Each structure stands twice: as C-alpha cells, then as structure tokens.
Description:
Elements: H1 2-19, H2 24-27, E1 33-37, H3 44-60, E2 64-68, H4 75-83, E3 90-95, H5 96-105, E4 117-131, H6 140-148, E5 156-159, H7 165-177, E6 182-185, H8 189-197, E7 203-207, H9 212-217, E8 222-226, E9 253-260, H10 266-281, H11 283-292, H12 302-323
Parallel strand pairs: 1-2, 1-3, 5-6, 5-7
Antiparallel strand pairs: 3-9, 4-7, 4-8, 4-9
Helix pairs in contact: 3-10, 5-12
Amino acid sequence: MRLLNISCILCQTLLLLLTAEPTIAQSYPAKPLTIKVAFPAGGPADVAVRAANVVLERYLGKPIITENVPGANGSIAVTAVLKASSDGYTLLGTTGSDFITAPATIPSAKYEPEKFKLIGIVGDSDFVLLSSRAHAFKTVDELIDYALKPGNKELTLAHWGAGSSPQVVGADFQSRTGTKFLEVPYKGVAPVIADMLGGHIDLAFVPIGGGTLSLIQTGEVNAIAIASAERNPMLPTVPTLGESAKVGRFEYSIWAALFAPPDTPDEVVARLNDAMNVWSASDENLERIKANASRSVAPMDVSRAMTFFKSERQKYLTVLGSLSVKPQ
Length: 328
C-alpha cells in the first residue's frame, strides 16, 4: 500500500510538472521591452540600437520602445536602468568604452560596470578625426604643425564628456603629438556634429558609422585621418593616423551594445543573447555595415561576450590611467 501511495505521489508530481506554467525563458518576453539609450537621438549608438530593434522585435515577437536618456557620459541612463526591475524588460543601450570609463571619471556615476551583463554588440565603428570646413588640413602632420606654431589660434576639440571615449582618444593624440586643444564637452556625438556643421567647433574624434560617412562624402566636414590599422575602402583617400610618423600606431574604435542590469535571470540573458546573434548575422546588419563603413562583429554566446567585456574594461581603464584624464 505504501509503494502504491508513493507511486501515486510521483505520478501527481510529474503531472504538475507537465502542466506547470512555462519557464521564464519560454514565456519571455510577455510584454514590450524598453531600451534606454545613453546618448541623444541621431548619434551612432542610438542609430545602431534602433536598427537592431527591427530584427530583435521580429525574433522576440514583442515591440521594443527606445528612450533616449543622455547626459553625464551615459551614466544618467545607467541610473535609470538600475532603478527598474531586473526582469529583462528594461535594458541599457550605450557605448562600451563610455560605460566602462564613466565611473572612473564622474563622481555621480556610482555603478559597477562589471556587474552588468553584456547581451551583445549592435555596432562597431572606427574613430575618424574631423575638422570643420573652416579648415583645410589635408594630413595629420598639417594639423600638428598648425597647432604647434606659436601665434596660431587655439583649436577647439569636442567630445561628449569627461572620461568619454572621444576624450580618451583626444587625450592620447595630444599626449603623443605635444599639441594642446581647447576641449569642449557635449552630451553626445549628434550635437557635436551639429555644432561642427555650424562652424562653432574645429575638431572632433567621432565614429565613422551613423551619418558621419555621408557628411564626409558630401564634403560637409573634413576627414583628416582614421584611427584604424588600414584605410577604409569606403574612404580610400583618407589616410590612417598611423601613416604619420608624428603619431605612430593609433587605433581606436567604439562599439555600441545592449546590457542587462545586475540580477537579470540567466535564462532571460541567454534569450536576449540569441536575439542579438540573429541581429549580428542578419542581412539588415550586413547591409548596414557595408553602407556606413563600420566593422563586422562575430556572434558571441553569453560566456564569450562577458570575456570580451572584461578584456575591453581592462584595456580602457589602463589607457585612462596612463593618460591621467581628469574629470571636467
């Protein structure tokens, strides 16, 4: 009789398991998702996130709402994400280098990047050094010679805040060449480009992706050099910074990504990671890469994504420390 009772209990337990509610991974997502983008609309990170959303919505089967929450080198958006539930319905869209460096340079950025979970990369672009049309620098050497010549007007160099990736790139450039520019902080690359088009700033290191490529091709801004190992096939006449003996090897790119906040369930992160890998291999992404001269990124599982993030964090903190970039 006891064995019969045990058998009945086991059968009931199995029946409950079979008829139980679906697991988180199976039921997720059950409602629209929100991605808080850390920079203004129209910038490279925003454009990349919105492009990826088309494929992510198709794969996940739910709408994705994009909210721009710019300011403080992206840390305002991070704070907003941390205030939401860690259930996978509120995600962070930002640039990896800015996300990494903000806590080291901005007192108000009180978060720990290493506790977030990298879901996947939405876009990766090399930095290009631009000048407004008020200048006709054809090479980096011309720019350096002008900046070092006594009596010449001090040039302005725009970036998007203390410790931001373009500030780090600009600091490295000035350190190597002995130049000094008047740094002007903005909230993102979109307002930087707007003021450059208006002739209000002289120089800026910006990602070649987004709308930058077309502005270069139409001559609305002057591309002096690209921070990559080789010339970009879409801009074959624009030299690399490394082609100048005064600079040497100089390679910087910026990658935009989606992050899940700490304590997001592993099953949800894995589901989102699958969606991101679909985006990476999609025709839409491959066409976008070809159109805006950005880099291709191989799909990564969760473990590989976190290993990549750890490596990038160490790299940028090392560079930041060696340049002694100060908060502004």
